[in-house]
Write a structure and sequence with these properties.
about 30% helix; nine-stranded mixed beta sheet; alpha+beta; FAD/NAD(P)-binding domain; binds flavin-adenine dinucleotide; 2 domains; D-Amino Acid Oxidase, Chain A, domain 2; eight-stranded mixed beta sheet; globular; about 400 residues
Amino acid sequence: MGTDYDLCINGGGPIGATLACLLATKGLRILLLERGTYSSQPTQNPDGRAYALAEGIRPLLEDAGIWQALPQAGQPINTIHVVDQQGRLPSTSRNSILNGLSFTEDDAPAGRPFGWMVEAHNLLAAIARALPEHDTLDIRAPATGRFTFTPTHAEIALNNGQNVTASLVIAADGRRSLLREQAGIGLTRIPYNKVALVSAIAHEAPHHNSALEHFLPQGPFARLPLPGAPGHPHRSAIVWTDTAKRIEHISSLDAESFLRLVQDRLAGEELGQLQLTGSHWTYPLASQYAHRYYAERLLLVGDAAHGLHPVAGQGMNLGFRDVRTLVELLGNAYAAGADLGSQDILRTYQRLTRPGNLAMLAGCDIMERVFSNNLPIIRHARHFGLNTLKRFPALRRNFVHRAMGL
Ligand SMILES: Cc1cc2nc3c(=O)[nH]c(=O)nc-3n(C[C@H](O)[C@H](O)[C@H](O)COP(=O)(O)OP(=O)(O)OC[C@H]3O[C@@H](n4cnc5c(N)ncnc54)[C@H](O)[C@@H]3O)c2cc1C
């Protein structure tokens, strides 16, 4: 049956919008529905988040025209220090850490950073700039739809009263996906009874493109390098995980007391005087996974399909891997004139993405549990793991290669 659109993408966040741009370059007629608004100017950071994006994801964002449209270039991450519990970074040698491990430029493919830090408001502005560049992309924002699925197509009743049809609908509407719920797709949620506090700090000394992941019994503390801003040439993001009660207490502290606690968690990093540059945001932590990635004429992508603990900064990266798979699958099907909503395509997408996504989700879950556990046997196992990685460069490089999404 002829439809108004080849595809309707519901949810124009980072994952839905990137998918829309990439498939539009292949000629697909796409309706993108986003309930929020877009602004091509980076407004005040809407949610405090700064994303660590794997180097392997950068080409995807370039192909989508989003990377080039960033109002401020991403901040490369060239060194990652991992410190276990009360370890310290010795000031003399940053490459060998007590109770920890450093990943340096020698561990990455020549000349390439491990990843890039991009602040949420810059990514959203870049998306707003890239979307209108595509002729076959119909962007409706703010807009929502009501969906009816039939064996041959999907019908979409837009909130402006218009009714349209598409061969396939993609739910990119985030963790609380209404489309997933409407399709009756089950969800397993794993709460951690922990909260992440995110904030940005300025410091006196440069970060030298390094990131710190400090594992503490109460939860991981991360300092991630950010690009400079007017008045603050040296900046970092922090992601601080602890119990809800302690995060509530930490959030209520005055700047001086807050920064003293931050200093304690920097494991000896010498960043000079610290300064808070904005508010705190808090996120209750949970992992979740959808039991299936498809229903009749419907596919789930990004956080609608899987939500991870942010310990390894892999949630959005995983969504971009879904995008990579879908662009190939739907792009080829479109070129061959095939039905985009066929069972064959829906099943193939799930087969190609879900096992790897579940493995990554399990990996982050284990990391959170193993690193926040102080039982002697777990502590020894942890040290054994870190030391093994420290002693075998080939093993370390293999680990890094995977984390970089290459
Ligand atoms: C504290 C924290 C730190 C993180 N750090 C990292 C990191 O460093 N690296 C990383 O890879 N990931 C990170 N993540 C994970 C990352 O934020 C998510 O994986 C990512 O935002 C998922 O993108 P998405 O587009 O799938 O969903 P979302 O970002 O949730 O976007 C969904 C979009 O759909 C729209 N929408 C919702 N419902 C409707 C509807 N009914 N109709 C129309 N539109 C709708 C929303 O307005 C939104 O624009 C972090 C998460 C947290 C909480």
